[in-house]
Amino acid sequence: MSVRRSRLAPSPTGALHLGNACSFLINWALARKNNWELILRMEDLVGPRIDLSSIKDTQSILTWLGVDWDGEVLRQSLDLIPYKDALNTLIALSKIYHCNLSRKEIEQAASAPHVDDPLGKKAIRPLDISSHNTSWDKQSTNWRFRVHDEPQVVCDELLGKTRFNLLNDFVVWTKNDLPAYQLAVVIDDARQGVTDVVRGHDLLESAAWQSQIYVALGLEEPQWWHLPLVVGEDGLRLAKRHGDTRLLTYFESDMQPEKIIGLIAKWCKITKIHETLSSSEFLQVFDIRKVNTENIVFTKEDEKWLLG
Length: 308
Ligand code: GLU
Description:
Radius of gyration: 21 Å
Largest sheet: 3 strands, parallel
CATH class of the largest domain: Alpha Beta
CATH architecture of the largest domain: 3-Layer(aba) Sandwich
Bound molecules: glutamic acid
């Protein structure tokens, strides 16, 4: 039987927080419990400038949490050729077209479907994509993937089937001559032999887009596992307003990682009260079937226990 493989794919920006720790730990425990391989990939193509020290910090934080991985770490920015090859294949297949709108305008167009909205009109794809691409003047430009008109169904191991009506052609290559997240992640998961993608629920809709790239390139789609997000008591995603929940802050203070792991164990319903736990103790009692599909709430009590 061929080996199953999952991956940890942090964007090493220094902004990783408790919600990320929860996803990493569940991903790790799911892989280790089932004898899957688990690889680590640094997604350092997008976002604020990423330097070597934030990559090192991210690895140190994972190790501190007792999360280990197999093999060499891949750093996306070191070799852009696999992404460029995929871009050229998609151009040759007429699956993508260049577009002079900014990425922000393209994203806004997705939430501005009114016909009389000038941006909505401008963001509509050209009628003949192949002739559009031959007129490409090699100026810096965004490249957009032509989504099909049928609803896209994502089959998730935890959430079942979700249908998406994708409204907008999404960006796969940016004006800065870099692959966008949607393309880079598919190319890497495919070339790294990832069979199981385990990550936060906020990327569920991305799976619908990514599915279309898999099909266009004739690649095998992985199994999806989208995990609950951690939110504050106000129901909103963890952010500064909920206090400083960055892992780097905890790591640099004298907090015991066993507290964070214990908190995640309680969130995963494998313990009932706040108690410290090592990652190997977490692994012993971990059961994916107990993990919530609803958001997890980081309560004031959780915070008091963690910082107390
Ligand atoms: N690097 C992405 C993030 O940190 C995760 C991508 C993925 O898991 O597909 O949000």
